[in-house]
Amino acid sequence: MAFRTTAVALNNMKKWAYNLSGFNKYGLLRDDCLHETEDVTEALRRLPQHVVDERNFRMVRAMQLSLTKTILPKEEWTKYEEDQLYLTPIVEQVKKEREERENWEKIY
């Protein structure tokens, strides 16, 4: 019983932190906020074009909202349950490939 209560409390804290971060008020997803390193750029190159277009739309809309100092109506905010990691798995794969390549170059 204590485990279930702890899990519920942890989930509520995650939702609270997610809403506190503020990017969801602009309609952004968590992966839209990744710092664009070489690995992220390579992962974006590997994504299907329609996913990249959707990301670009969200980014442009967020910049426009930020410039006008407004946010989306509450019903259009990204919800914690709806947020999906579309880029993180690919970034992790790219990092593993890069590290493997670097290790290979060190050895040979």
TrEMBL record:
GO terms for biological process: mitochondrial electron transport, ubiquinol to cytochrome c. Keywords: Electron transport, Membrane, Mitochondrion, Mitochondrion inner membrane, Respiratory chain, Transport. One of its GO terms (cellular component) is respiratory chain complex III. It comes from the Eukaryota. Gene3D superfamilies: Cytochrome b-c1 complex subunit 7. SUPFAM superfamilies: 14 kDa protein of cytochrome bc1 complex (Ubiquinol-cytochrome c reductase). It is a peripheral membrane protein. It is found in: Mitochondrion inner membrane. Coiled coil: none annotated. Belongs to the UQCRB/QCR7 family. Component of the ubiquinol-cytochrome c oxidoreductase, a multisubunit transmembrane complex that is part of the mitochondrial electron transport chain which drives oxidative phosphorylation. Component of the ubiquinol-cytochrome c oxidoreductase (cytochrome b-c1 complex, complex III, CIII), a multisubunit enzyme composed of 3 respiratory subunits cytochrome b, cytochrome c1 and Rieske protein, 2 core protein subunits, and additional low-molecular weight protein subunits. The complex exists as an obligatory dimer and forms supercomplexes (SCs) in the inner mitochondrial membrane with cytochrome c oxidase (complex IV, CIV). This is Cytochrome b-c1 complex subunit 7. It comes from Mythimna separata.
